[in-house]
Every structure is written in structure tokens, then in C-alpha cells.
Amino acid sequence: MQPLLVAGSPGSPYTRKLVAALRFKRVPYRLVLVNPDRPRLPQPKVRLLPTVYFDDGQGGVEPAVDTTPILRRLEREWPGRPVTPADPVVAFIDALVEDFADEWLTKAMFHYRWARGEDIRKAARVLPNWFDAPLDDATLATAGDSFTARQIDRLSYVGSNDVTAATIERSFERLTGWLVKTPLVHQSPSLATASMKSSVARTELLAFWKKMEPYASPSREES
Ligand SMILES: N[C@@H](CCC(=O)N[C@@H](CS)C(=O)NCC(=O)O)C(=O)O
């Protein structure tokens, strides 16, 4: 069987969410790093990371985006080691928490990366190196500058600004304080765990959820 082909980047929280769930489910996969300026694979209609290339049944591939429906499909095709709770009430709560993590926690991730000087300098040095082969120092400096300009420009779309910064940070601190003492939704890893873990890990502040930890970081061999 061919491993599932996933195009993504370790800097993308949604890539990490998907990879965490694939690892937990033990679905064989191959992660290829994408350089958005030099596409090597067919593009999905909406260009987002991660993109999963499903077998189209005719010898080709069918690109798919959006981790939630992708993982719902994988749950149907790979029912072993489910990441959806069996109890429908718990599954509903899990879906709500997953949505909260996908839509709200990524704001904290983006804010903590791009709102302050030292964090910006770190993100500029790290993230451009995760789309292709590692860059030499001069290329990394140029790529870091243009990456930074683009991402800071997007802070307004994400909703991080001088007025909202305190709300984002208070909400994140409240959540992480709560997570230290509360088990998350159900006993084994789930989509909610995968999504929350990925965004929180990407803030590079915390290492929670030991049970998800082994599944959360793409290893070097995969890139
Ligand atoms: N809801 C989507 C979101 C995917 C997403 O926004 N990915 C980011 C990278 S982490 C992206 O590709 N952003 C590029 C863009 O928005 O143009 C999912 O769950 O996969």
C-alpha cells in the first residue's frame, strides 16, 4: 500500500494536527515540504496547508484540503484507533473543542509569532527554512524579511492588534492554566486534542499532553 501523500510544513499548525492524528491512527503517510513558489504537485482549488493527495482510483491523485473533513474521511477509511469519540455526546463536545482550537487558538499562535520583536525575529529565522531544503544565511535573511512582512500584514485579518492583544493572551493563559489540571474531553487522543496540541505547541511556550507528544512532531526523516 502506498503511504498517504501529505504536502505541508512543520510550521503549519494544521499540518501538525493532521500528522498527529495520522501517527496516532498509524496511517502510513509521507510528508513533503511545500515551496509555495515552486509547486511540484497538483494544486487544490483553495491553496492551503496541509494538502492531502488521495488516490483518485484512476491512477492519479485528488488534492484535498481542510483537516476536519479530511480526518472524517480517514476515520471512515481507516476505522482502527479512532480519533472520534464513540459516544455521540462526547463526540459533539470534541467537535466543538476542535473547532475552538482550529478557529481561535490559531489566533494565539499567529499573535505570539508575529506581534513582538523577539518572537518575530525567531519566526523569521525558523519558518522560511521549513518549506524546502534549508537555506543559506543570506537567502534565509531575505526570505525571512519578506515572510515577516507578509505575515505581519496578515495580523489584521487574524484579529491581533493593540486592542485585542490582551484578550487573546488572557484567553490563552486561562486555557493553558485549565489544561494543566483538566484531562481533555476523552481518554484517548482525538481531533480536539490534535488541533489544540498543534496550535499550543506552535506557540513554542508549552509542552502539554504527554500522550499526544509522540505523535505531534514530524521527524526529520519525513521531510
Ligand atoms: N481549516 C483549514 C485551515 C488550513 C490553513 O489555514 N492552513 C494555513 C497554514 S497553517 C494556510 O495554508 N494558509 C495559507 C493561506 O491562508 O493563504 C484546515 O483545517 O486545514
Index terms:
223 residues, alpha+beta, Glutaredoxin, Glutathione S-transferase Yfyf (Class Pi), Chain A, domain 2, 2 domains, four-stranded mixed beta sheet, 8 helices, 9% strand, flat, disordered C terminus, binds glutathione
Protein architecture, described:
- The protein has a 4-stranded mixed sheet with strand order 2-1-3-4, with helices on one face.
- The chain has 2 domains: 4-77, Glutaredoxin; 88-218, Glutathione S-transferase Yfyf (Class Pi), Chain A, domain 2.
- The radius of gyration is 18 Å and the shape is flat.
- The protein is α+β, with helices and mostly antiparallel strands and 223 residues long.
- Helix content is 52%, strand content 9%.
- Strand 1 (4-8), helix 1 and strand 2 (29-33) form a beta-alpha-beta unit.
- The longest helix has 27 residues, at 88-114.
- It has helices at 13-25, 67-77, 88-114, 117-126, 137-158, 165-181, 191-202, 213-216, and strands at residues 4-8, 29-33, 51-55, 61-65.
- Helix 3 (88-114) crosses helix 6 (165-181) and helix 4 (117-126) crosses helix 5.
- It has 8 helices and 4 strands.
- The chain binds glutathione (GSH).
- Glutathione binds next to helix 1 and helix 2.
- Glutathione is lined by residues 12-14, 48-49, 65-68, 102.
